[in-house]
Amino acid sequence: MNFFISKNLKSASLACTTMLAGLAMLNTAYGQSPESDKEAKPEAPKEEVNKNELKVIKLSEHVYQLGKVTFNKQTREIMIPATAEIVGAEVVEYALVTSQGKIHESLFITDAKPSHVNIAFKLLGYKEAKYLFRKVNKNFQPQEDYETSTDEEKKKSKFHVNASWTVKGEKKSYPIEELVSNPRNDQKLESTPWVYGGSFVYKGSYVADKNNDILAIFTDRAAVANYAGEGREDDTLWSPNSKVLPRHGTAVTITLSPHKDKVEAAEKINAK
User: What is the arithmetic mean of pLDDT over 242-247?
Assistant: First the structure.
């Protein structure tokens, strides 16, 4: 196994063990408290870690697989197989959940485990950032102020989401922001990087696996990652953009790719 993956796999395995065994604050996602609090409390006091589920398989020189999640150590992309779920006029709060999750509120569903997506983020060097979430008081009620993150955490938490599928032999590919719109004014989601927050651990359980949330449009601390643009704290704004979305049940690949700011892009061009 190559040094990059080997070194980061040890860190990710340690993080995963901590994630599944440690204690953390209960779910305080803004607007998510009643449902998420209920779902975040496991019946069993502690879960056993299935080591087979953490096995990383090398598929090619740069591509690895963990469960149903594949990732490229060179491009730092994460690929998740999914299917189209909501394509009508419903309100959406999530871009991606598992097939046991809030499928009535999500554009796409997947059989990939949220914890596997989380580990792929860690193996590829992404950093968790919590600045999208509101601080809470001693009763876990959200306040006006937000959590803080370092500049490095903010920079290394950012990524973009793309959905691709094939229709009659023709490949379609769209940024996730173009697949969601506000029916009141036909405005699309703001084109902005998403933020890897990492979810959290509660009573020995990784909450994203319990709640089955991977990519949230409406800010959810329990999800693996969140949309960071305008309107992210309003759960009534967004609906599927049926003009471009595929039919219900269409096989889709969700690709998460690292954000590169203008300085980084310019440096890469000049280096060529």
Answer: 93
Question: Is the separation of the CB atoms in 49 and 17 below 8 Å?
Answer: yes
Please report how the helices 3-21 and 114-123 are oriented relative to each other, as an axis angle in degrees rounded to 10.
140
Give residue limits of the domains in the chain.
3-271
Position 144 confidence tier, pLDDT thresholds 50, 70, 90: confident
CB atoms near residue 124 (< 10 Å): 25
The tally of CA atoms less than 13 A away on the side-chain side of residue 39 is 23
Please provide residue 82's backbone torsions phi and psi, each rounded to the nearest 5 degrees.
-150, 175
Q: What Rg value do the Cα atoms of the chain yield, rounded?
A: 18
Least confident of 120-129, 157-166, 256-265: 256-265
CA 7, 13, 18, 19 torsion: positive or negative? positive
**Across-strand partners of 68?**
none
